[in-house]
Every structure is written in structure tokens, then in C-alpha cells.
Amino acid sequence: MKLTVNQIKRGSVNEPYFFDDHADVSELETMNNDIRKISPVHVTGQVTSHGEEFYVNMHIKGEMILPCARTLVDVPYPFDIDANEVFSASAYYGKEEEEQEIHPIQGEVLDLLPFIKENVLLEIPYRVFADHTDQVDSEEAAPSSGKDWEFISETKEDKNVDPRLKKLESFLNNNQEEK
């Protein structure tokens, strides 16, 4: 979600510049977090400019799918975030602005997407629980196989012997018969 500095200045002569858009944050699914799926988020807000500084007030709304802490079933988790960010287009951006968490604007474009993603990541709860854990089918719960692995229970365990160990098995059987 990108806004140009000229677009903001033209649209906010005596009032804030308002925006209303959807942002694709599906990249968060591939990161190392619990998000299994996330739909595009709805972002509304306003930008107020004071000289070379831009104050952005955003409202981010969407839904992500997280695993249940007990059963690993998919749990929809709606979120509603209010975020405030400050940006600077000043050529004199320095350490003081960085310490005050004022973000620099690179060129003429104000890219809000990294800050939207950051706020969504901060909204991920420590754990979520499915509403009906007693009614969860075991097939819906934890996966029983994945890439290069498979869960084997004691009842499902194969009794096949590795062919390399076949002679050892016959040797052990002979020793038990002699006793």
C-alpha cells in the first residue's frame, strides 16, 4: 500500500488525507510464526502533514487462521488494530529521529505495507483455543504426516524386519530355541 508525498500534500491542503484500501499480507504465512492463512486486510486511515513530517493513523481489520493450542485445529482469529506511525521526508533525518521511532520516507513514496505487516505480527496472540475441542475429529486435529515424516502409533507399527537384519533375527531365534 503505497502513497506518494505529492498525493498526500495535494489531498490534504486544510484537512487530513484519507485512504481506504485492502492490503495483501499473505507473505506473513511463509514467515516463522503461527499464521497458517491470512486474508487481505482492510486498512482505513488518515495522513496529516506538518512540514516534512507525516502522521499516519491507521485502522487495520482482518482475520487470520491460527492453530489451536490443544488440538492444532485451525482457529479463525479476527483482529482489529489501531496503529499510529510517524514518517519524515526531511533530508536531515538522523539518530534523534530514529530513536523517536520516526520512519524515513525513501524518495517520494510512503510505503505502509511493512508497517501494516508489523502491526499484524504484533497482534498474534500467545495461544488460541478452538471452541469445541470435545467435538473435534482426530483427523481434523494434528496432522498425521507431512513432508518427510509420518506419525506411527503402536497399533499401526509394521512388524517388517529390515532385510539387512534378517540373519541377526534368525540367529536370535536359534539361540532362544536352544535354551
Q: What share of residues are in beta strands?
A: 25-35%
Terminus-to-terminus distance: 79 Å
* Count of domains: 1
Counting helices, strands and paired strands, the structural category is: alpha+beta
Largest sheet: 6 strands, mixed
What overall form do the CA principal axes indicate?
elongated
Overall average residue pLDDT: 80
Helix content range: 10-25%
Q: Determine the number of helices (DSSP H or I, runs of at least 4 residues).
A: 4
SS elements, strand count: 10
Taken in chain order, the helices and strands follow as: EHEEEEEHEEHEEH
Low-pLDDT runs of 5+ residues are: none
Please give the radius of gyration in angstroms: 28 Å
How would you characterize the overall build of this protein?
This is YceD family protein. With 179 residues, the protein is of the alpha+beta class. It has one domain (2-133). It is built from 4 helices and 10 strands. The protein has helices at residues 5-11, 95-99, 113-122, 166-178; strands at 2-4, 17-23, 37-38, 41-50, 53-67, 74-88, 102-104, 109-111, 145-146, 149-150. The strands form 3 sheets. Strands 2, 3, 4, 5, 6 and 7 form a 6-stranded mixed β-sheet that branches. Strand 5 (53-67) and strand 6 (74-88) form a beta hairpin. The model has no long low-confidence stretch (mean pLDDT 80).
